[in-house]
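To the wet lab folks,

You asked to see what we're planning to order before we commit. Fair enough. Below is the target structure as tokens, and below that is the sequence we designed to fit it. If anything looks off to you, flag it before the synthesis order goes out.
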């Protein structure tokens, strides 16, 4: 049936691409047959599939999703699993159109709640302690799976930046109308867009140096000779704006724009240092 499987620990996804005209065959024949085969395998290993924890999603642009009409799949004669508009995967909320607004909404609520609680402790904490606490609780949340935010609309990125700005204001006691950029620079924090690019380029460097899983490293390859002093990656031409967000496309595009001295970093720590310096200068316009 040509379904692909991707697993992480005890969490597995079975996925398949299809065009809207194939919806009936996929939803009424292939997906139920796939479930039957999974159930048979689990039964032979003394396991049982839990329909209550099974979710089915269809990803696509809003235009493509509007052409679909089936809203559920019968995995057997008695149980119908409805298509989910959102689903949590490893703690990250994905939605069917991949605009990630549901994820950002949840993240804002969580981070603002934490910041309010941290602000109440300001009288007993020093600025370095506040900074360390907020980096551990807020920035770590902003950085979690943040490569998925690449290519999102500006309103999503603006909301993420608001969280970082609020974190900066909480540490330094800034007022709402105070400009945040100079203070972000003072804290030596990359802005949201640069943090996203940092994560993607870090994954790219690891992939090129055998430090990432095969399912990531197999996506990219050099287009120039191995001994080239300015190694570049093969760039894939995406057929849509959503395709531009894929790692295989954006990683090569970003990597090829890096200065050669950053690309040729001899070690991972050196690469991180060089990359952050490069992105920091680009974001704030001058050396710190």
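Sequence we intend to order:
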């Amino acid at each position: 049936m040509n379904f692909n499987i991707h697993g992480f620990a005890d969490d597995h996804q079975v996925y398949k691409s299809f065009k809207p005209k194939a919806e009936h065959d996929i939803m009424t024949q292939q997906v139920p047959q796939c479930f039957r085969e999974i159930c048979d395998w689990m039964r032979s290993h003394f396991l049982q599939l839990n329909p209550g924890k099974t979710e089915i999603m269809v990803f696509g642009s809003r235009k493509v999703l509007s052409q679909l009409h089936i809203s559920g799949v019968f995995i057997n004669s008695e149980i119908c699993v409805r298509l989910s508009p959102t689903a949590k995967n490893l703690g990250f909320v994905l939605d069917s159109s991949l605009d990630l607004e549901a994820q950002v909404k949840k993240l804002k609520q969580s981070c603002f709640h934490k910041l309010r609680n941290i602000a109440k402790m300001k009288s007993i904490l020093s600025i370095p302690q506040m900074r360390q606490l907020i980096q551990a609780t807020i920035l770590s949340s902003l950085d979690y799976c943040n490569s998925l935010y690449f290519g999102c609309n500006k309103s999503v990125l603006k909301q993420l930046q608001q969280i970082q700005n609020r974190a900066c204001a909480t540490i330094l006691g800034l007022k709402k109308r105070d400009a945040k950029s100079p203070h972000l620079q003072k804290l030596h924090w990359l802005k949201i867009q640069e943090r996203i690019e940092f994560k993607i380029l870090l994954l790219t460097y690891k992939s090129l140096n055998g430090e990432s899983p095969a399912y990531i490293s197999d996506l990219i390859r050099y287009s120039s000779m191995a001994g080239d002093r300015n190694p570049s990656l093969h760039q894939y031409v995406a057929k849509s704006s959503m395709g531009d967000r894929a790692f295989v496309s954006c990683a090569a595009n970003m990597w090829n724009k890096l200065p050669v001295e950053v690309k040729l970093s001899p070690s991972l720590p050196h690469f991180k240092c060089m990359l952050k310096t490069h992105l920091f200068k680009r974001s704030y316009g001058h050396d710190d």
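Structural context that might help your review: DSSP finds twelve helices and six strands in the chain. Strands lie at 4-8, 11-15, 72-74, 80-82, 86-89, 92-95.

Thanks,
Computational group
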